[in-house]
Each structure stands twice: as C-alpha cells, then as structure tokens.
Amino acid sequence: xxxxxxxxxxFTLAIPMxxxxxxxxxxxxxxxNILYDQEKRNTYVSLPGLFNMKDKSVYHGIILxxxxxxxxxxxxxxxxxxxxxxxxxxxxxxxxxxLGTMNFASMFKGIQFSGxxxxxxxxxxxxxxxxxxxxxxxxxxxxxxxxKKEDEKKSDTDIIEQKGE
Length: 165
Fold this sequence. Notes:
This protein has 3 helices and 10 strands, in the order βββββαβββββαα. The protein is of the alpha+beta class. The chain has one domain (2-136). The protein is globular.
C-alpha cells in the first residue's frame, strides 16, 4: 500500500494515498480541531489537534478524494509530510483491543512496529468523527442596521396612521 508519511513526536502517521485527491502547503494557525469554512466550503481537520498535540506545527493540507461534494471538501491538516513510500499490507498489525476503548485508537487501522511506530490512518472512522463533531453551517442573519431601519419605518407608519384617525 502506498502511503504518505507524516512525522509526529512519538510516531509516524501513514496516510493511504488512495484516499488523497491532492496536497497543498498550509501555513495558517489552527485553533480548532475541526473548522468549517463557509466561504470556501471546506472542512479543515487538524490532525495534531485531534492527537492532543496542538503545539505541533501544521505544514500540509491533504484534500481527501471520494469524501467531497460540491458543497464541502474535507482537508486534513497535518505535520510535515516527509515522503511517500510503499508499505506492504501484511506489515500492519491490528490496533490492540485494549486500546480500542480510547477514541484516539479508533482513528487508526493498523500499526507497523519499527524504530518508531507507524500508525495507519483509518479514513472512514476519521470521517465519522468529523461528521459527529462538525458544527452545523451558520445561518446568515440579517444585518442589525437593516432590521433597525425596518423597525423605524414601521414606527413612522404607525405614527402617520394614528395622526390620520
């Protein structure tokens, strides 16, 4: 399986290439784990934030393939992607069931033991987590000045009707 490798302090993250539509450089601060940008219609998912590593810098955005629509694109924000490589499927072992109770562990399909463990990202489970945590799109509220002017117009009309009686 071809994967992109992204380095974190205690492990390396393997992102399956078949789930990747494209990659971009990303140089903005990420304050939230999941951010929906209504203007660009993107959902940004900060992987360092989800991994409780908020101080880890984000260098790349990975636009997922197959999980996007005209209304929304899912962009994974990750630490620097170091390289892409081929890792045979049989080198990944299932995540131990004892870790299965932790929400963190559900984001991974498998683990490869080497010098530093390589965790294979489970895109499907990550998308489910994002869908649960994603806030509903904000409704556009009328501008306060416009509402105020409409109220003023109503009160002027009421005054004229009262004088006319």
